[in-house]
Amino acid sequence: MTVLVTGATGNIGSRLIPHLLAAGHHVRAIVRTATAGLPAGVEQVKADLLDPKSLAEAVVGISGVVHLAAVLRDPDPSLIHRVNVEGTRNLIDAVRSESPSTKVVMASTSLVYPDDLAWPATESDPVGPVAAYPASKVTAEQELLRSGLAATVLRLGFVYGDGDAHLAHAPRLFEAWGWHPARALHLVHHRDVDAAFLHALGDPGTIGKIINVVDDAPMSAYEIGRIVGAPLAASSEPLPNPWAGRLDGTALRRLGLAPSVPTLFHAALTGAL
Questions:
Q1: Quick one: 247 exposed, middle or buried, by C-beta within 10 A (0-12, 13-18, 19+)?
Q2: Secondary structure of residue 12 in the 3-state scheme
Q3: CB neighbourhood size of 186 (10 A)
Q4: Which pLDDT tens digit goes with each residue over 183-235?
Q5: Architecture of 2-160+189-214+248-259 per CATH?
Q6: Is the pTM higher than 0.85?
Q7: Cα(7)–Cα(13) distance, rounded to whole angstroms?
């Protein structure tokens, strides 16, 4: 399979590409400028998601797309919308025009779920986030799933592991957001994110589906802080909603994808952080 990867040099893409290569796929990466940071054997194509004409060459002859490119945090919400929504729309149009039978797997986020659910969030629960990033991902999901392409959306928990410094910054974010130290967060290790993308690319049973990609146990902000060496202040005050941040991973498990790194505690004990 020739797999086009957007966001190839990001935290997820840089870890996923070696697994795609090891699985025997030919990897084509969209880059805005040539980079030496990609593994040998990766075909680089200069293109920009915001320049529709530049995408034509990138999508010719492909049979799979892993769409990771996104803007997460930026003071300009219009930039987030342009990249995450308009960029996805441009990619969809290019694939439909040049390689309409291509399987497209897009990364989305667990942040799309509301905080007031009375149970762990399932893929069928209503979403309607206000913040720019998750709102843009919901729109991009809808665009992709209505496109007529063979598409799958993976809603990822908080991705960490294998040297990703993202987790180390989490306690500072929790404090900035005013989180209760007992508030839960569902995580997923990079290795299991990689496995989910590889599976979705090859499994026609995932077409048209949204799938939560999470490990076996959500962790509290306090526990995360303790593990990364940046503990938050403790509190025994009541937690407003104990279900906030928790996701249901049943759909993923039904695909036979039990996490290889089941919890953050396991990652810390085995040196997988």
A1: buried
A2: helix
A3: 24
A4: 999 999 999 999 999 999 999 999 999 999 999 999 999 999 999 999 999 99
A5: 3-Layer(aba) Sandwich (3.40)
A6: yes
A7: 6
